[in-house]
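Figure 2 data, in text form.
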Amino acid sequence: MYTSEEKICILLGDKGVSVSKFSQLWNMFDGADDIVANLGKNKEAEALLGNVYADICVGIKKRTYEPLIDKMEKNNIFAVTCFSDDYPDSLRSIEEPPYILFCKGNVRLLHSDCLAVIGTRKISSYGRRITHDFTAVLCEYFTIVSGLAYGVDSVAHETTLEENGKTIAVLGGGLLNVYPAANQGLADRIVQNDGLLISEYGMDALPLTYHFPYRNRIVSGLSRGVLVCQAPAKSGTNSTVDLALDQGRDVFVVPGEIYDYGFQGSNHLIKSVQGACVTTPRDIVDFYGLDKHDSAKQTYQISIEEQTVVNALSSGQLTFDELIVKTGLSPADLNFLLANLELRSIIAKLAGNTYRLYGGIE
């Protein structure tokens, strides 16, 4: 059951009233009852709402929000508004907090410990590997938030589902108008696996271009920190990072090859944001002091070749050259195995190209 305030929010959200206009409108009246009684007589409100003013007046008078609520219920969609107990505190403190979130799935995730995983739509094979390997570890500790776009977003959501983690997708259009349409299946899987889809736009709202950079304030606002997996020089990811910094959120960036255009934005962020560089998900886990490995050691399924490296390090730290001798592996194969083990926090790389076990295996 929705309150009068929430029903008005649902109507305004469906009509596409912006956050700024919502705030101005609410300040003109003394609560929901005053809006119901006097909106149709207020010239200032008419000027503010423009071409949707008449529809909203009729909607409030004829209670057309009731069919909207019926449609929401038929599609398992519900509204969390700024007047709701379920509204997350993390969003109340940001600039221009959304007054409504249309939700589908596990709304409790709005109050969970979240980390945003973001990056380019044009993901490289290395960027895909970074996103997969970091997310696979971090979804143990956080609800993973992203934007359901192609590239990094999709890999982050998919990896979280593979690892039986929880994920929130923040859409740039309506929940009944998933964009890109090719990710409708992924959106369905998120809901089916106890995840959450949210949007501040009406159920059938089109995914307009300007919606996406604006919705990014919600991606970062929900999250304790933002992880950039891959960003070129000109990328929407940079706007999310700017929002995160303005909101006081932590920023983490994985470095890329210096001559790779697809990582120019990432490498620039590392130079401009102090302490942003991370080379293993363990860096983020340690930053927040979320060390599950001390209280309950993690069991990983590892390959025979990886076990060879672990066995070699079981007696103590070794240099790369010593590992080659002890394991009999080629330098290329050893490099690949070491990178995988380090990303999963099974081993740690020390100064002087030396490695030791981290304690990630029982």
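Caption note: The longest helix spans residues 125-138.
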